[in-house]
TrEMBL record:
InterPro entries attached to this UniProt entry: IspD (IPR001228), IspD/TarI (IPR034683), IspD/TarI_cytidylyltransf_bact (IPR050088), Nucleotide-diphossugar_trans (IPR029044)
Site residues (Positions MEP for the nucleophilic attack), renumbered to this chain: 159, 215
Family affiliation: Belongs to the IspD/TarI cytidylyltransferase family. IspD subfamily.
Organism for this UniProt entry: Shewanella psychromarinicola
Protein name: 2-C-methyl-D-erythritol 4-phosphate cytidylyltransferase
Gene name of the record: ispD
Top-level EC class as recorded in UniProt: transferase
GO biological process: isopentenyl diphosphate biosynthetic process, methylerythritol 4-phosphate pathway
Length: 232
């Protein structure tokens, strides 16, 4: 199946995903119900019928991943990631390129366990509208304020065209690999895959996703993620 030009390779950068949230292990391995955050995330990707392979980019000293049942899944493989998210994504893209340079990469945060199959499918199908690639995003709902360096409000920002960037983000393997590599070589600050494409002059599409596709960043997020997952 990986020889198909429409092959889809999901990439999960899990080498460095932020703080440990006061725990003794990386946050993606914290428990969310009966299994870890990362395990839930991988379950969602592995169970999607249109995803052919899941590539997890791990820290070289990771001692937790091999204990997950998902690590033995026949549709999953692992590579060694880098210090930053972009480095880990690039390592996975290098691997994906050797399998099928015509495949598409579906890059998803390790700490977004609540992603729905409906959103993933919607993003994949958006290729007919956005052949250059697209990302899941949610429109900004709150009033946005711009401040000065002292923390005073300078102005109210029009939120009409503002979006929260989510994941997955969906791009051709070859173009994302090329633009991400060039951006890193130019020492450009890359916050997500779309920013590398934007730097190269590509305008990714926006596909509206669910607001419950949260990223677990703070301890309170664990309770919220558990609530969302219990309702699915």
């Amino acid at each position: 199946m990986l020889n198909n030009p429409r092959s889809i390779i999901a990439i999960v950068p899990a080498a460095g995903v932020g703080s440990r949230m006061g725990a003794d292990k990386p946050k993606q391995y914290l428990m969310l119900g009966q299994q870890s955050i990362l395990a839930h995330t991988l379950d969602a990707l592995l169970a999607h019928s249109e995803i052919d392979l899941v590539v997890v980019a791990l820290h070289p000293e990771d001692k937790y991943f091999s204990k997950l049942p998902q690590s033995q899944h026949p549709k999953l493989t692992q590579v060694i990631g880098g210090e930053e998210r972009a480095d880990s994504v690039l390592a996975a893209l290098d691997y994906a390129q050797t399998l099928n340079p015509n495949a598409w990469a579906l890059v998803h945060d390790a700490a977004r366990p609540c992603v729905s199959h409906e959103d993933i499918t919607q993003l994949i199908e958006s290729v007919h509208i956005h052949p250059q690639g697209a990302i899941l995003a949610a429109p900004v709902r709150d009033t946005m304020k711009r401040s000065d360096a002292s923390g005073h409000i300078v102005s109210t920002v029009d939120r009409a065209l503002l979006w929260h960037a989510l994941t997955p983000q969906f791009f051709p393997v070859s173009s994302l690999r090329s633009h991400l590599s060039a951006a890193l070589a130019a020492h450009v600050s890359i916050t997500d895959e779309a920013s590398a494409m934007e730097w190269a002059g590509v305008m990714p599409g926006l596909v509206q996703g669910r607001m419950d596709n949260i990223k677990v960043t703070h301890p309170d997020d664990l309770q919220l993620a558990a609530l969302f997952m219990s309702q699915k």
